[in-house]
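[job 0412] stage=complex_fold ligand=GLP status=START
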Amino acid sequence: MKVTVTQNYDEMSKAAYKIVQEVLKCQNPILGLATGSTPLGLYALISEACKKGDLSLKHVKSVNLDEYIGLPKGHKESYRYFMDTNLFDKTDIDKSSTYVPNGNAEDMQAECDRYNSLLNRMRQSVQILGIGGNGHIGFNEPGTPFSSVTHLVDLQERTRQDNARFFNSIDEVPRQAITMGISNIMNAERIVILASGKSKAEAVRAAAIGEVSEQCPASVLQKHPDAVLIVDEAAAELL
Ligand code: GLP
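[job 0412] stage=complex_fold status=DONE, emitting structure tokens
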């Protein structure tokens, strides 16, 4: 895995944007997208460029990593809402070409199977990732088999606490999510993993130079032929 250390968050976002720009030049680009605060700077750069007419997403399809289970449609913390408001609605992307797992499906196993076959038909030209404080990618918590495909997960307490800042209280944070599996992520042609801030330093260390182990899901990226970790100085502190 290649590691790029940038001075700060803005530079991290710019470095990721450059890669996205390059990928968008390919014939039928498929963007694998992530939620969380980390990719917001990248999404702002994409939105800005679309607004100026420097970039178009008309020919682009996207697949998202994950979604909470059970949040009502249109809930402000659902990942579909996050993607619509932070990226899709600010660009010219055809919304019917944007895919996020359905966290309200009646039959969750059928939804996992549906999303998985979608991913088998739509290989990500690039997969954007953030990293959880415990090394999770998507919602693949420590201990998830590297061979996993789209599945339902019980969120770990640390993850619920980390994400509680977006909700009124921890009780409102969903206990389950649907996520692409690790093998779906590893299937991407390219992977860009972003991290910013001191709170990610230990997860970044384990992912980049720790033992490749299912205990740190992000460490699997060391085995990907074209993965780049772009981190700011604070997140790179332990490298
Ligand atoms: C959530 C998401 C992950 C994301 C992580 C880190 O758990 N499912 O995809 O990478 O949070 O979020 P943040 O970027 O806000 O630190």
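Residues 9-23 form the longest helix (15 residues).
[job 0412] exit 0
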